[in-house]
């Protein structure tokens, strides 16, 4: 009887184990199927739609203001300063007397030379009449002609010496320097004054070899001086060859200065506008690096794929950057761009 109970127990245990194994197999199979079918979670990013706008590119470079021309005036004769008709720093006109030397004996020499010319003219006329009567030779007439020419040359020298006793402005400008005072003695060749021409004014600077090809003679530009003045003009000169040391090219912007503002020699920032193009205005915070360390921005296509665009910065301002080369309308990643790469699929939500 005990053997019957033992046999029944073994059979019952086998049945229970068989039933449990079936349940386990049934539960494990759906679980594995569900696990295999469940997709991986997509990275969530935030995007904003940007539209291209027309923007004008600029070439920006530093420089300084300079006069159109500056000339040191030198004494062309000796003498003593008799008067100074124009104060230093005054506006002057071409031909205006700036420094007057004492006449000394220049007037007397001039009058003597004038009298001698008159005398030689009379002698020549008399010689010509005598020659007509065959009373003197042609050689004597030639001697009279030579004497007249010498007297005329002496007269011209006396007139020139008297004219040089007055030092005049060579052009309209400003008497920027006067190195003598009344009573001072000057010698021929001494620098006695300087006149500068401030209208127009030049803004002189240098541009890089990458930018010089974008500029042309006559291009409009503007200059902002460190003193606050805003000046506008046009490029009048671009160097044909680069500086050997800096590899930069000299550029001159000519700006009107009718009031002759004393702004020569002041640091300035020059901006020259180029042709307009389409670009997107973005915050610098949107910039990211690709695997190669290139700076750019990341966008999301309509199918959720990430694309990388190299940052072609054409202009910057206090509010952000202008990037060219992007599609006319583009969805740029504003949050999460550092966690995804080009080609990834993401779940994007608009800001």
In summary, what is this structure?
With 351 residues, the protein is an alpha+beta fold. 26% of the residues lie in helices and 42% in strands.
Which terms summarize this structure?
351 residues, rod-shaped, four-stranded antiparallel beta sheet, 20 strands, Elongation Factor Tu (Ef-tu), domain 3, conserved putative lor/sdh protein from methanococcus maripaludis s2 fold, single chain, six-stranded antiparallel β-barrel, alpha+beta
The major β-sheet equals: 6 strands, antiparallel, barrel
The Rg value, from CA coordinates, equals 47 Å
Helix content: 25-40%
Shape: rod-shaped
Q: What structural category arises from helix and sheet content?
A: alpha+beta
Helix-strand topology string: HEEEEEHHEEEEEEEEEEEEEEE
Spatial order of the strands forming the largest sheet:
2-9-12-11-10-13
Give the tally of β-strands: 20
Strand residue percentage: 35-45%
Parts with pLDDT < 50 across at least 5 consecutive residues: 31-38
Quaternary organisation of the protein chains:
single chain
How many structural domains in the coordinates? 3
List the total number of helices. 3
Distance between the termini: 82 Å
Mean pLDDT: 86
């Amino acid at each position: 009887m005990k053997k019957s109970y033992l046999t029944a127990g073994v059979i019952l245990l086998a049945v229970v184990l068989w039933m449990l194994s079936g349940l386990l197999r049934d539960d494990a199979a759906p679980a594995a199927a569900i696990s295999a079918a469940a997709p991986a979670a997509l990275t969530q990013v935030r995007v904003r739609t940007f539209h291209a706008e027309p923007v004008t590119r600029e070439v920006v470079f530093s420089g300084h203001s300079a006069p159109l021309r500056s000339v040191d005036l030198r004494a062309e004769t000796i003498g003593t300063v008799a008067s100074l008709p124009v104060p230093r720093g005054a506006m002057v006109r071409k031909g205006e007397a700036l420094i007057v030397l004492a006449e000394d004996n220049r007037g007397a020499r001039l009058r003597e030379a004038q009298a001698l010319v008159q005398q030689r003219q009379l002698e020549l006329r008399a010689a010509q009449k005598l020659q007509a009567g065959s009373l003197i030779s042609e050689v004597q007439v030639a001697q009279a002609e030579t004497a007249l020419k010498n007297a005329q040359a002496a007269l011209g020298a006396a007139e020139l010496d008297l004219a040089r006793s007055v030092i005049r402005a060579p052009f309209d400008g400003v008497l920027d320097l006067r190195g003598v005072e009344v009573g001072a003695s000057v010698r021929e060749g001494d620098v006695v004054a300087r006149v500068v021409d401030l209208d127009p004014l030049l803004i002189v600077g240098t541009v890089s070899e990458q930018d010089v090809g974008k500029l042309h003679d006559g291009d409009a530009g503007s200059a902002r001086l460190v003193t606050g003045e805003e000046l506008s003009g046009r490029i009048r000169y671009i160097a044909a060859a680069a500086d050997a040391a800096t590899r930069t090219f000299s550029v001159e912007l000519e700006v009107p200065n009718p009031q002759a503002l004393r702004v020569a020699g002041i640091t300035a920032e020059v901006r020259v506008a180029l042709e307009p193009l389409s670009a997107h205005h973005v915050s610098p915070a949107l910039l990211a690096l690709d695997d190669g360390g290139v700076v750019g921005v990341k966008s999301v296509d309509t199918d959720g794929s990430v694309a990388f665009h190299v940052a072609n910065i054409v202009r910057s301002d206090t509010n952000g950057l202008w990037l060219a080369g992007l599609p006319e309308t583009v969805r740029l990643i504003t949050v999460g761009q550092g966690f995804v790469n080009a080609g990834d699929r993401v779940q994007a939500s608009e800001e």
